[in-house]
Design brief:
This protein is an all-alpha fold. It has one domain (2-424): Orthogonal Bundle (Proton glutamate symport protein). The protein has 19 helices and no strands. Helix 1 (2-36) runs parallel beside helix 9 and helix 12 runs antiparallel to helix 18 (384-415). Bound molecules: aspartic acid. Aspartic acid (ASP) is lined by residues 281-283, 317, 320, 358, 360-365, 394, 397-398, 401. Aspartic acid (ASP) binds next to helix 17 and helix 18.
Length: 432
């Protein structure tokens, strides 16, 4: 029975991977058919009916059902996590450690991005296009952001999918359950049962992943094609190179030195979450999968993962911060503006804050980039220059955002003796 289960799961991973590759191939094919015979019937059918019709509908359904799980999962899983905490004080310690690591890795990410971009100078010599325009809404002030963490209405927080507010409510509920004796224990049991059911729902939704991944990836590549990346080659190179550098250097060190685990095994197990992050370009939509992998495949105890993963999904966006660092240097170069040390420090600070304030959905990093540019006096409309390539870069940086959440989670779990090394080192643990 267990073997049958394992082999079904193995096939699912393989199918998701095939979905990804087929999505690339199909998208690029449709893109070139459209370019070679733009007015032909085939091309109109492919673009209007297939890409904007079927692919769009199936893709959105997949993303919606993944998002559907966010609120139930954060609420139920975190209540269970808090309720199973033996020592309430350890919650505070956990929170501080996690937050410090999230902020520190983001600040290092921006610094790396600035360094690489300064060396490559991606913007110098780029012809400015007078027609670019981008008018984002002004970001909310810091005070509003702080107040906004605390919900005045839990149902509203849930209906709006405000993850930080749901986290606050779940922690409070979990704490109350610990302190209400028998009454609390009865309700805690219900939450533990609910947790199993909610996890099962995630499993069921994952059966749709091969198709979801296929249509999402095919749609992006059919609409944009790979050539779009070439026009801004140096910028794209800087972003992708720094993303890779950050994963290898920073997450590699965190995993080896703090979590004391094998980074290669870590990445092997994160595979499915990474494909989901790439195809949905949303760490929030990917969160149900990340949480499942971190608990079941990496062996992190629920009491840690249920807190660090939803928090990381909301506040930890190293990939986004890297794009913002590179974009700032790129735009400064294109406008012939010299950035000084003070500007670099300002960028590190604002990009770190902006990444905390960036909602985990596609493209939002661009909006908070406006905040970063504004701080160093660069024209916000210049974002229009990089908007064209942003979707594909967004897919890549979301993979890094998700990896960062899981790497920090492993490190924090290790320090709390909440990382089961037998599960982590077992390549077949909960394989799909
Ligand atoms: N799409 C990113 C994420 O969900 C956020 C961004 O960079 O726009 O993590």
């Amino acid at each position: 029975m267990q073997d049958a289960n394992k082999s079904t799961k193995d096939t699912l991973t393989a199918r998701i991977f095939i979905g990804l590759l087929a999505g690339f191939a199909c998208g690029i094919l449709i893109h070139y058919v459209g370019r070679l015979w733009p007015e032909s019937l085939v091309s109109v059918f492919l673009n209007d009916n297939l890409v904007s019709g079927v692919f769009h509908v199936v893709g959105q359904i997949f993303v919606n059902v993944l998002k559907l799980m966010i609120v139930p999962l954060v609420l139920v899983s975190l209540v269970c996590g808090v309720a199973s905490t033996q020592e309430v004080r350890s919650l505070g310690r956990l929170g501080i450690k996690t937050f410090v690591l999230y902020v520190a890795t983001t600040a290092v990410a921006v610094a790396l991005a600035l360094l690489v971009a300064q060396l490559v100078q991606p913007g110098v010599g780029i012809a400015l296009d007078e027609n670019v325009a981008f008018n984002p809404a002004p970001p909310p002030p810091l005070s509003e952001m702080l107040i906004g963490i605390f919900p005045s209405n839990p149902i509203k927080a849930m209906s709006e999918g405000n993850m930080l507010q749901v986290i606050v409510f779940a922690i409070l509920l979990g704490l109350a359950l610990i302190h209400t004796g028998e009454h609390g224990q009865r309700i805690t049991k219900v939450f533990f049962d609910l947790n199993v059911v909610v996890m099962k729902m995630v499993h069921l939704i994952m059966l749709m992943a091969p198709y979801g991944v296929f249509v999402l990836v095919a749609k992006v590549f059919a609409e944009q094609g790979p050539n779009i990346l070439l026009g801004l080659g140096k910028y794209v190179f800087c972003v992708l190179f720094t993303l890779l550098l950050h994963v290898v250097l920073v997450y590699g060190s965190i995993l080896q030195l703090l979590a004391r685990v094998n980074p290669v095994m870590f990445l092997r197990k994160m595979w499915m979450a990474l494909i989901s992050a790439f195809s949905t370009a949303s760490s929030a939509a990917t969160m149900p999968i990340t949480l499942e992998i971190v608990e079941k495949r990496l062996g992190v105890r629920n009491s840690v993962a249920s807190f660090t993963i939803p928090l990381g999904t909301t506040v930890n966006m190293d990939g986004t911060a890297i794009m913002q660092g590179v974009a700032t240097v790129f735009i400064a170069g294109a406008y012939g503006v010299e950035l000084g040390l003070g500007d670099f420090l300002t960028v590190i600070l604002t990009a770190t804050l902006a990444s905390i304030g960036t909602a985990a959905v596609p493209g939002v990093g661009m909006i908070t980039l406006a905040m970063v540019l504004g701080q160093v006096g660069l024209p916000v409309e210049a974002i229009g220059m990089i908007l064209g390539v942003d979707r594909i870069l967004d897919m890549c940086r979301t993979m890094v955002n998700v990896t960062g959440d899981a790497a920090v989670t492993c490190a924090v779990a290790r320090s709390e003796q909440a990382l089961d090394m037998t599960v982590f080192n077992d390549p077949a643990a909960d394989t799909r």
